[in-house]
Amino acid sequence: MSSPTPEASTSRKGINKKVKSSKKKSEHTPVVVTEHGKNEGDNPHWAYRPPAGAELLDHTIESEEFEWNVIRDNDDLEIWLIRVPDSIKAKHLEGLEIAPPVSLRTARLGGLTRKNVTHDVWSIGDDDIDVMGGDDVRGLSCLLPRKKKKGKLCIAPKAITRHIIVSAQPPLPTPPENQPIVHQNPARPSYSQDMLKRQFLPYGARSQLNETTAEGPMEVDSTIPVVSAPKEKGTEEKASKGKKRKVEGEPHKKHSK
């Protein structure tokens, strides 16, 4: 007898799988009918649970000082945002007196000393400032509880008016005590006034002296007697010859006898 070919065995296995899958599809799953519709009703696992290490916020309002409607209805109230470092608590700010900011520019309002560390209180204005780093607080908004919504937090009806930042002063480098100063110029020698003979006169310092001398009478040199130079003989002879020529040119007068 001849053994079946491997191709025929694989084809039979494929047919058996198709028959089994069709039988599973034909079987109907039982339908469970409940009082509510599908995905409805209360499920104890649907309630919100805070993650590990977090506590659920209690929305019950104890005081109406920061209630949403109170802030909205009172025009004299302003919302100030105060940022403090981790070492400063809210109780440390009690009794702190600062000057109210006059303008919307960045200015220092006061100081706070805590554990031998001096902190400056700054009011961040509309102008650009890079030293204090107050750019991050400008984009924050305030959330206030509201009674109408059962104490849920809602965005405040007013914008934040002032941004206050409490920051520690930068440490200043101080030289160690009892250490000689290496880089220091020697003391300049001092001289007595008898030895100081030179005088510094900048350009144009004597202009006033020149003007006073120019306005005064002009000095005239002493008169020197002028001596006439002796005439030469040649010039005298020429003059006498000229006279003779004139005499010779005249007509001779006849003398009557």
TrEMBL record:
Q: Which parts of this chain are annotated as the region Disordered?
A: 1-46, 206-257
Listed Basic residues bias regions:
14-26, 241-257
Q: What's a Pfam family this protein contains?
A: RNA_polI_A34
Q: Which residues fall in a compositionally biased region of kind Basic and acidic residues?
A: 230-240
* Signal sequence segment: none
- Tell me one GO biological process term: transcription by RNA polymerase I
* Tree of life domain: Eukaryota
What is the name of this protein? Answer: Uncharacterized protein
Q: Which source organism?
A: Scleroderma citrinum Foug A
